[in-house]
Design brief:
The complex is a heterotrimer. By secondary structure, chain A is mainly α. Chain A contains nine helices and no strands. The relative contact order of chain A is 0.14. Classes of the chains: A mainly alpha, B alpha/beta, C mainly alpha.
Chain lengths: ~210, ~190, ~230
């Protein structure tokens, strides 16, 4: 059991170290989310309320996440490095878990900038919003880590990932926006937790089938 | 160690391997020859269990932790140093006395001085040698090498000759090459695709 | 492997009989709804079509699970065909739902209509399923990947329902609502007959398409063996 988590830790640290060295993904995500928020300002009419803006925040987060998810297996894809991981005696799902954890880290870094920027440009950020964003990260990362592995097998790799991801992201958006605008966000937060739990489990269980040939 | 009966592999409509049968006992040296595109790499990938065969029966009696594979790609991360790469694999394979073993291998293959350099700065020969270190790190019983001479200069090739002779004495090898003359003397079993 | 489409024709006959009978019941026996009048009759088509779609998706997911469990590639074809059928019935659900909305309330689409919204999400999802399949070369990889995605789909169904339920009237006022199915006895019987007919139709189409695809695969196999 601890061996499993050791493997996860080794792999996650590797992913974070790679990102630290190459600085490919996180800076792009940061720039993109701020840019998106600026675009949204011009897309919203003056009469639009805070609620409309909060809805758009979730769009910004979702599409920025997609940008990041496209890069999850970039290193492995380029040099066939996934083989190296598959040859190792570790459980395949450990690879998924490590990737999920690094995606969560990237998302948190991105949101650390996005949420203050949103509060600056549009409307205050509530505690419920922050909770919803944190819960949503888990779902996005879990499903995203699996779907980007699926995209590796596809000829149209980068193109297919958003198509696969968006329908599955709709419940996340519903949960997130719901929690952001109602007075009593509890049921939406519970829902996000449920989504996270269910989809994390099936992503974890099915990763092996997607990544082996 | 390896028992293959009627192995075939198809990619869609294209048949790459057909009815491959052989028995490789422990300590043996399998030399796989054939033109480009004859399926040598595919066969080795199947033996490494990176790929399943379309038909036939394959029995490889070693587990993943006792199997070493060197393919076309060196399987090292460009942004990490040689040392960091080996540390990663060392931990994943749970290699005993990891540091010592990494140090020993890096020295043996002439990479000790470059150990703190990112592998993206390595020449093809150095990458190949690092790949060999990676494959040997966990002291595998079975080594699979896919065209290990590809891209090596004369000095590198000479080094590899020595290394292979050494390795053949202590473990089971399966090597593919489209220049089989170098390896002829070592081979105990030959397979032409 | 049975190549002959044994169950197909039998099921088709059943479906034809049941649906014919059902339609007769719809028009001549079932009472006209007090609120919505004649247009309510579309309900007898719309809901069975929707339920058949769900059944197809569930069957597809079951076969996907069998594929992952046993590795037997037969199940890939079965899963794919079931999902194909499900998508067709899904599109029909959206179409009949839109017609019903148009006749009842004058609009082609209503976000307050939960069933339709769920089907829209599913339509997006399963369209992506087909795009995924077309972008991977045939083989065990495609089979396993499609199977995993199919499983995600079947989990998405209840999750979407739940999501839309908790959303309630938050974003979109349910100006147009349908009361829960408080059906009288005769309405219920009519409904069941049409439902049974629709399910038979679904299965008939499934078996027919499956047999066709298996024949195709067998032909390719033979060609390969002769080459």
């Amino acid at each position: 059991m601890t061996a499993y988590f050791q493997d996860v830790s080794v792999l996650a640290r590797k992913d974070l170290l790679l990102e630290l060295r190459s600085r490919d993904t996180v800076p792009s995500m940061l720039l993109f989310v701020v840019g998106a928020l600026v675009v949204f300002h011009f897309a919203l009419p003056d009469s639009a309320g805070d609620d409309a803006a909060r809805g758009l925040l979730w769009i910004a987060i979702l599409f920025t996440a997609l940008l990041g998810l496209g890069r999850v297996y970039a290193a492995e894809r380029e040099r066939g490095l996934l083989d190296g991981l598959l040859l190792a005696p570790c459980d395949r799902s450990a690879i998924w878990l490590a990737k999920t954890m690094s995606v969560i880290a990237f998302l948190l870094l991105m949101e650390a900038i996005a949420l203050p920027a949103f509060a600056l440009f549009f409307a205050p950020v509530t505690g419920a919003m922050v909770a919803a964003v944190i819960l949503a990260n888990i779902g996005i990362a879990a499903v995203g880590a699996l779907l980007s592995a699926i995209a590796l097998s596809s000829r149209t790799g980068d193109l297919i990932l958003p198509l696969l991801f968006l329908p599955l992201a709709i419940p996340i958006v519903i949960g997130g926006v719901g929690a952001s605008i109602v007075d009593d966000p509890a049921r939406f937060l519970w829902f996000l937790g449920l989504y996270d739990g269910i989809f994390a489990i099936i992503s974890w269980a099915s990763f092996e089938y997607v990544v082996t040939e | 160690m390896i028992s293959a009966r009627g192995i075939g592999k198809r990619f869609g409509e294209k048949e790459v391997l057909r009815d491959v049968t052989f028995e490789l006992p422990p300590g043996g040296f399998l030399l796989v020859t054939g033109r480009n595109g004859s399926g040598k790499s595919t066969l080795l990938r199947i033996l490494a269990r990176l790929m399943a065969s379309s038909e036939g029966e394959l029995e490889v009696t070693v587990e993943r932790r006792s199997l070493g594979y060197v393919g076309h790609e060196p399987l090292v991360y460009r942004e990490l140093t040689a040392l960091e790469n080996l540390e990663l694999y060392g931990r994943l394979y749970r290699v005993a006395e990891r540091r010592e073993r990494i140090g020993m291998l890096l020295e043996r293959y002439g990479l000790w001085e470059a150990r703190h350099e990112r592998t993206q700065t390595f020449s093809r020969g150095m990458q190949q040698r690092l790949s060999l270190c990676r494959a040997l790190l966990h002291d595998p019983e079975l080594l699979l090498l896919d065209e290990p001479y590809a891209g090596l200069d004369r000095e590198g090739a000479g080094m590899l000759d020595e290394q292979l002779a050494e390795l053949a004495a202590t473990r089971t090898l399966a090597v593919s090459s489209h220049e089989p003359e170098r390896l002829e003397p070592l081979a105990t079993l030959r397979l032409a695709l | 492997m049975s190549l002959r489409n044994r169950s197909g024709p039998a099921l088709a006959v059943c479906a034809f009989a049941l649906l014919l009978g059902g339609i007769a019941l719809v028009f001549w026996w079932a009472p006209t709804d007090a609120d919505q009048g004649f247009s309510q009759k579309i309900f007898y088509i719309h809901v069975p079509v929707a339920l058949t779609a769900y059944a197809c998706f569930a069957w597809g997911a079951w076969k996907a699970l069998r594929l992952l469990w046993t590795g037997n590639e037969r199940h890939d074809l079965e899963s794919y065909t079931a999902i194909h059928m499900g998508t067709i019935f899904g599109v029909l659900t959206l179409v009949t739902g839109a017609i019903w909305a148009r006749i009842s309330w004058g609009v082609w689409w209503s976000w307050g209509e939960r069933q339709l919204v769920v089907f829209l999400i599913l339509f997006l999802f399963y369209s992506a399923y087909f795009m995924l399949r077309y972008s991977i070369d045939p083989g065990p990889r495609r089979a396993r990947t499609s199977a995993v995605y199919a499983l995600f789909g079947v989990v998405l169904i209840p999750i979407s329902f739940l999501a839309i339920r908790i959303l309630g009237t938050l974003l979109h006022p349910a100006v147009f609502t349908r009361d829960g199915v408080g059906m009288t006895g005769s309405m219920f019987v009519t409904f069941l007959v049409v439902l049974a007919g629709m399910l038979c139709l679904g299965f008939a189409l499934y078996h027919t398409e499956l047999a066709g695809k298996r024949l195709d695969a067998r032909l390719r196999e033979l060609r390969r063996a002769l080459a």
